Amino acid sequence: RASEDPPQDGITTPSWFVRTHREVAPDVWTRAAIGSRANCAACHTRADKGDFDEDNVRIPK
To answer: Where are the domains of the chain?
Structure first.
């Protein structure tokens, strides 16, 4: 039985993620419609199709 903590969210820790999301204010990530940095589909409207183009980003209020 493992006694170590589970790994942190892997998608939000690489430098490319931090760099491409640096303009997103910290409070945005905790909005009810978003929930966490790992919820890509909350803002990337075509995430289900693998399209993360900046033109298709809509940040919920």
So the answer is: 26-61
